Amino acid sequence: MPALEPYLIEPIWQQFKVLLPERKIDHPLGCHRRRISERVVFEKLVEVLVFGCAYHRIADDSCSESTLRRRRDEWIELGLMERLREISLDAYDRLIALELSEVAVDCCVTKAPCGGQKAGKSPVDRGKRGIKRSMAVDAKGIPLGAVSAPAYRHDSPLLVPTLKATSGALGALPEGASVHLESEATTRF
């Protein structure tokens, strides 16, 4: 079963493909192993995003998990992943329409056993390392923007950066838009 139907993923791929830099093969003998197709990596990364699973679960004979990570990092460095996010939101908005009159913002704490720049002591997991993620979604639950912070941070200082992350790709929220926080979100949605 594909992560997305071909009629959805094909137009996004066509727009993304134009952004990819042209690769030059400069090996003098031309005998090194061929690079895995950008399309294969793109579809695998979409699967990771849609299914929310680990890279090693998606990797197979056509593409290894290390290739997925390397290409993802390469595309992030080139700014292509942010552009892909904008393309996807724009396509969704044109096909289905984002409901920006109602936006919900909430945080969650996740484990970070390997640490990282944003990891900090988790107040809900006996002081083990964790990350707090703050995310804004539209009325249908489509993610609009997210920020991360150490697990011990309070939710309230993350509200403004989360809304800024949302407006970065979409522009300002419409006049009169309601932003629902944790207590309101559970009663309204």
- Total tally of structural domains: 2
N- and C-termini, Cα separation: 30 Å
**Which parts are unreliable, with pLDDT below 50 for 5 consecutive residues or more?**
184-189
Which structural class is indicated by helix and strand composition?
alpha+beta
Strand content: 15-25%
Q: Please compute the radius of gyration using only Cα atoms.
A: 19 Å
Oligomer: single chain
DSSP strand tally: 5
State the helical fraction.
Answer: 40-55%
Number of helices: 7
Largest sheet: 5 strands, mixed
Return the average pLDDT rounded to an integer.
80
Shape: globular
Fold and architecture overview:
The protein has 7 helices and 5 strands, in the order αααααββββαβα. It is of the alpha+beta class and 189 residues long. The chain folds into 2 domains: 89 residues, no CATH class; 91 residues, no CATH class. Strands 1, 2, 3, 4 and 5 form a 5-stranded mixed sheet that branches. A hairpin with a 7-residue loop joins strand 2 and strand 3. The C terminus is likely disordered.
